[in-house]
Structures are given as C-alpha cells and as structure tokens.
UniProtKB/TrEMBL annotation:
Keywords: Hydrolase, Metal-binding, Zinc. It holds the Pfam family Lactamase_B. Its cofactor is Zn(2+). Signal peptide: none annotated. Belongs to the metallo-beta-lactamase superfamily. InterPro entries: MBL_superfamily_lactonases, Metallo-B-lactamas, RibonucZ/Hydroxyglut_hydro. This is N-acyl homoserine lactonase family protein. The lineage of its organism: Bacteria, Bacillati, Actinomycetota, Actinomycetes, Pseudonocardiales. SMART domains: Lactamase_B (SM00849). Residues 46-253 form the Metallo-beta-lactamase domain.
Length: 270
C-alpha cells in the first residue's frame, strides 16, 4: 500500500460561536424546559490546515480564515456569529507556513474540503503560484453559480477568479492521500484519508464531522447542514472506513482534540 511520508497539522487559532451551530444534542445544546433560562453556550471553534508530504509532491488541506476576516465577512454578518478572535499574528496560515520553512511555491496541491469562509479564507494566497487548486465538482458548481456575493457561509470573494480543478467520487490524488466524498454539510464537502508508515491511517473529516461529540455513536448533527440525510450517510461512511483501517479521526473543529494532537511547527506524524 502506498503511503505518504509526513503529515503536519497546522493550528490557525480559533473562532467563537454558539455551540448550537456545531452540535444539536439533547442536554448539551438542546435544553429541556427546566433549563430554558440558561445563557447560550459560547464555545471555542478551532481552525486548522494540514500539510502532507509525499514522494510525488506536497498537498495543503484547507486554508483556514483570512487575517482581514472582520472586513471581508462584514457583508455576510458572519463576523457577529463566528468571530475569528482567538488568533495571534503568528497563527495565520501564511505565518505558520513561514515558521515551518515552507514556501508557497513548494506546495503542489491545495485541496479545499469545501468552500466555506473558514476553510477557503486564504485560497487567494495561491492565485499566482503553481499549486493546483482542487475541490469537488459539486462544490464548485454550487459555489460559483448562486446569485449575489454570498450564500450562507460561501463567500465568493474567497474563491472567485481562481482556476479550480475538480474531483468526483473518492480519489487518490497522491501516494497515500485519498479524498473522500462526504456531502451533507455542503453539497460537495470532502474528507481526507492519509496513510502513513508509522502513524497508520488518519482521517481528516473537515466539517463532515465537527467534533468527537458529533461523531458519537449515535451521530449528532449541527445547525449548519445542507442535507441531513446525506450528512448521516457520510458520517456512517467515514465510520466504516475507520473500522476497516483503524484510523485516527481528526475532527473539523474540536477544541479539546486539537490540544491533544501533535502540531506544527514542532510536531508531525510519519
């Protein structure tokens, strides 16, 4: 079996949001009448990217949020619901890559799990590089063809004017790196499976599964789901792959988990 050589999880600070956006679960974000006067549960929503190195090139998975988030998101109002307010100057993606000694010209592929504002926020950084920009065909079709400048968390300013290549179906794009179709959160959301020689299989769910609590079982959905039936099917598809490969699951926005993972620039997985 082909494997990748090295994987680095790149932490990019955190947003904050009402837990209900991430988790619809009785007793956690859905309260009984005895707790109807409770205040909202405002939680940390970490954001990360992943750099995978293989014999045939480097792939960056997702690009996190932009440093000009407050002005860029203003037309959408999203900055009031998901403020990207827990991030140091050296935690933005470009600064993190710089600390890792990775130039933009060294990245061969930039894969977007989906084109929401907190995943595609720095895609324009790669406009004049040789990197191939990849998303799923269904994601591209939706994200570039709706009316107006934004639709929900899709913001055209993040990704318009870029040359997008697409994949459909589950696709191995580099040795040990497979993109898994996992729609539901958006029409074309993907997860990524990486097979490593020492660390085994790791699955980066992106927003197909927000948190460990979302994964269950039973799976618990979120307020931001495009298609609930597809969402449940995708979670169970990922669970089937995990059971077959004994994969480590890395969830899209799990504040507890991100603290426990090895993170760049100091730590990595091989």
């Amino acid at each position: 079996m082909a494997t990748a050589n090295k994987l680095s999880i790149i932490p990019c600070g955190a947003m904050h949001a009402d837990l209900t956006f991430l988790l619809l679960k009785p007793g956690v974000s859905i309260m009984p009448r005895g707790q109807k006067d409770n205040s909202i549960n405002w939680v940390e929503v970490p954001t990360h990217c992943v750099l995978v190195e293989t014999d045939e090139g480097k792939v960056l998975w997702d690009t996190s949020c932009p440093s000009d988030w407050e002005t860029r998101w203003k037309p959408t109002g999203l900055q009031e619901f998901f403020p990207y307010d827990k991030v140091a100057d050296d935690e933005y993606l470009d600064a993190q890559l710089n600390k890792m000694g990775v130039g933009l010209d060294e990245i061969d592929y930039v894969v977007l799990s989906h084109l929401h504002f907190d995943h595609a926020g720095n895609a324009q950084m790669f406009k004049n590089t040789n990197a191939k920009l990849i998303c799923s065909d269904k994601e591209k079709e939706f994200a570039l063809n709706f009316e107006g400048d934004f639709n929900g968390a899709h913001l055209k300013a993040d990704y318009e004017g870029l040359n997008w290549e697409t994949v459909s179906g589950d696709t191995e794009i580099l040795p040990g790196v497979k993109l898994i179709q996992a729609p539901g959160h958006t029409v074309g959301c993907m997860s990524m499976q990486v097979d490593l020689p020492d660390s085994g299989t790791m699955i980066f769910t992106s927003d197909a599964v927000y948190m460990g609590e979302s994964y269950g079982p039973p799976a618990a959905p979120a307020a931001i789901v495009n298609n609930l039936e597809q969402w449940f099917q995708s979670v169970e598809k990922l669970r089937g792959i995990q059971e077959k490969t004994n994969a480590t699951m890395v969830f899209g926005h799990d504040a507890q988990q991100i603290r426990e993972l090895r993170k760049a620039p100091e730590g990595s997985y091989t």
